[in-house]
Design a protein that fits this description.
Length: 388
């Protein structure tokens, strides 16, 4: 998954979409179509993303050279302009309203096989997107010859996986003159996250990943420098490690964040402001990146990078909870304009716990709990689908 490839796909790969004229039909629909877009994924897969106001339910059918997605209780949106990636299997899309059901008809350049459940996702809303139904598919024989499609898909994934190691950049927050938050017992955030980052690098390397650290010692780095390291390494995933503080010393638990121009809640907003204050970077910056990268950032964040970051963050939260690591009350994934996440690399910011809570401060500086955190993060990385 090269950054340059993903940037190219998003910048130059859009066509136009014809939307059928819809008759006025009286119906009561609770959901609304918000956007349609396609993209190209590794392994010659086409991705179709259907964004809706509420969580969608759906059914699929496969007429000749078509993919039909039926969304019950959903109204069409003739005002949207959908984006079609050049070179994908979808040559045009139309909408058709049938009572309270919306049919999205993707006209294909080649027939496809039945889409496997593992290639379908429903992503939760983040700051820039509503619910997204994501379908990945590739050219196949027929729905009757399902095994042929499964075999081809599996062999493609194996070939890509074997060709190179996935690159992970681990960012230990703060450092040097910036200690981060400090617990009542004197534990410094910069020390805790560096210790966890070193352990995480060793474990990920042992599991076949290629890892880099933004800092391996007690040094100060600007936030843009950290993001730039991920860009230069052409990373597949960026993980920024932090520890939290809260005015209420009773507050404890981990929390996970992805990038959004708009914070998901007031607490997320304040946390982003505190983290960004490390070097006062403005989230509109990044002048050190080449112009084409900066131009692409907006589209990438809203679409591919946002979706991949959300997918990783959601999986990471599940991994933490399955490992019996306490979660801060609230949603599994939150969103805010963290400067360190502003790049073309999918990533998440992990607040490992609260140093302002005396009990959790003791946990965070213990080897056993740090190892528990590392094991959960490694599991989340191993479960993340880098090829989608």
């Amino acid at each position: 998954m090269k950054v340059s490839r993903r940037t190219l796909l998003r910048v130059i790969g859009f066509g136009t979409l014809a939307i059928a004229s819809l008759p006025r039909v009286a119906f009561a629909a609770r959901n609304t179509l918000r956007s349609l877009r396609t993209g190209i994924q590794p392994g010659n897969k086409t991705r179709l993303v259907i964004e809706t106001a509420n969580r969608p339910t759906y059914s699929l059918s496969y007429p000749t050279n078509q993919l039909v997605i039926t969304l019950p209780n959903t109204s069409a949106n003739t005002g949207i302009t959908a984006n079609l990636a050049v070179g994908g299997l979808v040559k045009s899309i139309t909408q058709a309203q049938s009572g309270s059901n919306l049919q999205i008809i993707a006209n294909l350049t080649k027939p496809i096989a039945e889409i496997q459940k593992s290639q379908i996702m429903i992503l939760e809303p983040n700051g820039d997107n509503d619910y997204r139904l994501v379908l990945d598919f590739m050219a196949g024989t027929t729905t009757a010859n399902k095994n042929s499609y499964t075999t081809a898909s599996a062999s493609t994934t194996t070939a890509v996986t074997a060709s190179r190691k996935y690159i992970i950049v681990i960012d230990a927050g703060h450092g040097g003159k910036d200690p981060g938050c400090i617990g009542k017992g004197g534990t410094r955030e910069k020390d805790v996250v560096l210790s966890v980052a070193r352990k995480l690098k060793n474990k990920l390397d042992a599991n076949g990943f290629k890892t880099y650290m933004t800092r391996s010692d007690d040094r100060y780095l600007k936030l843009a420098e950290r993001a730039s390291i991920a860009e230069k390494r052409k990373a597949d995933l960026f993980i920024s490690l932090h520890a939290n503080a809260n005015p209420s010393r009773k507050m404890k638990g981990f929390s996970i964040y992805t990038l959004s121009e708009k914070a998901s809640d007031e607490e997320a907003k304040k946390l982003a402001e505190a983290e960004n204050a490390a070097d006062k970077i403005g989230v509109e910056g990044f002048t050190e990146f080449e112009e084409n990268i900066r131009i692409a950032l907006s589209s990438l964040q809203q679409h591919a990078v946002a979706e991949m970051s959300e997918e990783y963050a959601t999986g990471c939260a599940k991994s933490f909870k399955k490992s019996s690591i306490e979660q801060q009350p609230g949603p599994d994934v939150r969103h805010a304009p963290f400067a360190v996440l502003r790049s073309t690399v999918p990533g998440a910011l992990l607040e490992l716990g609260h140093l302002s809570n005396a009990a959790e401060e003791k946990l965070l500086k213990s080897d056993s709990h740090q190892n528990k955190l590392v094991a959960a993060i490694v599991k989340s990385v191993k479960n993340y689908n880098f090829e989608v």
